[in-house]
Amino acid sequence: MDVEEMVKMADGLVFATTGKHLEHLQKTVLKGTISGQTYSQIAQEHGFSESHVKNVGYELWHILSSALGEKVTKSNFKAIFKTATSNNLTASISIVCNNNQNINIFAGQEERSPADPPNPEQTPTKPQIKLGDAPEILSFYGRQNEIATLEGWIGEERCRLVELLGMSGIGKTALAIRLIEQIKAHFDYVIYRSLCFSPPLETTLTNLLQNFCQPPEILYQLETQLSQLLNHLRSERCLIILDDVQVLFSSGQLAGEYRPGFENYPLFFTRIAETHHNSCLLLISREKFREFTRLEKQPYPVRSFVLGSLGSAAREILREHQLSDEDSWETLINTYQGHPLWLELTATMIQQLFGGKVADFLQYETLILCESVRSQLERQFQRLTTPEQSIMIQLAHEDAPVTLQQIIKKVKLEPADVLNAMQSLAQRLMLAPNEVGNLAYFQLNAVWNQYVKKRFQC
Ligand SMILES: Nc1ncnc2c1ncn2[C@@H]1O[C@H](COP(=O)(O)OP(=O)(O)O)[C@@H](O)[C@H]1O
Ligand SMILES: [Mg+2]
To answer: Distance, CA 138 to ligand 1 centroid (Å)?
Structure first.
């Protein structure tokens, strides 16, 4: 089988799965892979960024994996295609292209007669992607493992309810939008909505129902709307992403406490988890949902994912900002917890005030928080309860990690209030215990520590 035949066969498989033929860059990645090139070589030769070429590659392997029913990767693609040909493993099926030309390809176990008329329901109308107010993601780096995990849960394991959690600016929205690209072939509908303007549940359900090709006559009764939506989730495979869900929670109360007027949202989330259907609701939030703790223990397909540091992929952000002193980049990334937004804002400051020289910026003993990072932290701090704030202030006074018992001794609060506040800070992803032996130790991360120290002169 030569290169062109392999590309033709891959094209047939991609068309059978997505209703679209291979795009130019997808063909380029295939040809490069067949001739043994790395992503970086393909990128250089054709003038694309390496991350873009990688993303195109991952999506392609994913589609081919779904088409062939086995994991296809860059390293096994050639071998799998060769085996498929030599073993005649799979039946040769006929795909009717847009131009009515038949191509014979290898795919799955099913067979379709070349004489079968094209099925109008399989024409390339799916998936319907309704991104609404989703932001456009111009650059995206790393996160391959996170995408693979979420893809496994949502695409293959068919989880009905997934929460994607993380601090403000850690990259939840960017990840979800990137995930859509990767996962859309599994779905009939992909719908993204942000709840940033705090819509009541009835408005959200009406809005979701309007996205379907044949929206039902929308009745403004919650129960009816909910069963109309569940009917759609059963009859079509849908991925619904609700972003900024933390706006449903009260400020100045422990984490996960719904604001007045929004108490019926947990009913919606629970129904999605407990009712049988093939779809998925992905909730994106800065605070964990209390009902998940119960649902995750039940045998329902429900999962939580906490998004953390961007790791070494954050180097690309520094490169984009044209910073110099590459030897110091790792220190900068670790200091700012691999947090993409904090790094973007800090990189802008380094670019403007230090001529891009990271080492010059890092020469100061204290960690510098630019005003944009500081005001972002301030908004989050203001949402905390008084006991939570007291614990943060106490932790900023500590030079080393402390145990729960030590915090209870030092903070002038009832032990029960300290425990509830600690649990709440954990639900907000602002504090995580570090287990040493069988003891849990707590410490603020360097950025929060610096913010609280400066604000309260600790
Ligand atoms: N993987 C990534 N690669 C490059 N930039 C990223 C990445 N993730 C996030 N960012 C950038 O960081 C900023 C915050 O990301 P966003 O997704 O809005 O965070 P969140 O939704 O968690 O508040 C955005 O400017 C975004 O472009
Ligand atoms: Mg967001």
So the answer is: 10
Q: Domain range spanning residue 387?
A: 377-456
> Counting atoms of ligand 1 from 1, which one is nearest the CA of 174?
17
Shared domain for 110 and 47, answered yes or no, is: yes
In short, whether 201's Cβ falls inside 6 Å of ligand 1 is no
Structural domains in the chain (count): 4
Q: Cβ distance 358 to 328 under 8 Å?
A: yes
Cβ neighbours for 168, distance < 8 A, ≥ 6 positions apart: 286, 341, 376, 380
Q: Is the peptide bond before 127 cis (omega within 30 degrees of 0)?
A: yes
Q: How far is the CA of 403 from the centre of ligand 1 (A)?
A: 33
Asked whether the predicted pLDDT for residue 114 surpasses 60, the reply is: no
The verdict on residue 360 lying in a domain is yes
- Atom nearest to 166 CA in ligand 1: 22
- Please tell me whether residues 168 and 247 are part of one structural domain: yes
This prediction has a pTM of: 0.73
- Ligand 1 contact, 42 CB (< 6 A): no
Q: Is 70 exceeded by the pLDDT of residue 43?
A: yes
Which positions ≥6 away from 109 have C-beta within 8 Å? 69, 90, 91
Nearest Cα residue to atom 23 of ligand 1: 169
Beta-strand pair 189-194/161-165: unpaired
Query: Is the CB of 249 within 6 Å of ligand 1?
Result: no
